[in-house]
Write the structure tokens for this entry.
Amino acid sequence: MSEILLEELKAEMKIEPEKISLSLENFIREYTEKLEREGVILGLSGGIDSVVIAALCVRALGPKKTFALIMPEKDSKKEHTQDALNFARESLGKLKGALVKKAYRFYGRKTGKLPFLESLSGFKGKEYSPYLAKGNAYYRVKHRLRMILLYLYGELENRLVVGAANKSEYKIGYFVKHGCDDATDIMPLLNLYKTQVRELARYLNIPAKIIEKPPSPDVMPGLAADEEVMSISYEKMDLILLALEKSWKVSDIVKALEIEKDEVVYIKNLMQKSEHMRKIYKPDVF
């Protein structure tokens, strides 16, 4: 029974990349026209999500209407910047280091808790919280500054700001609220899990180097890969997220994926603790 459930889950995770690509290209064209913009602007990091967005925008509007802003800073890896530049040249025709890692490892060692999960809510009453708070403030402000730059140039040139967030990261809160991966005009990839974005990237002929390199937060210095921060692989997490979306019981997920119950509970906790990042709270009545 568990094998049947797993095959069902994997089958549902599969996408038709050509169909998805055409749909997203139409979506980008539709909203560029609907919101009366001359073109689009996006932040190009050299990672798979932003590169897929760039490719879709070029297919939808052409290179002259697609502007990619590359925004490296002192904690950005040169490899990611170079990948972004290389892709831009080929496709567009345009073109405090250890603080966070130290804070994350110190907090985990002292409390026995996962820093990423603890960081999704406030720190009231939590021991050693100043270490995490300082590291979080340090990297989050960079995403918000990038958002400001995207809107500055977007409004100067009447362009639509296009974001690159995917469903996996959005559902667990792996983004910066009001940052460049949250505050945008449209989010074409928001209905696709990370593993589905990879499948779409292959169809779009994105360079293998970009598809295969470990996803990285880039501006979180010392933390080399997303999966180091989240403590779980995208392949496993996406299947858990899809199963939860389909309202599977925790026990069925554990059996089908042959994983520990704690892993499912961890993902559920990430979703619950990050809920505030996906909504604005307001009073029901006055």
The first strand starts at residue 39 and ends at 43.
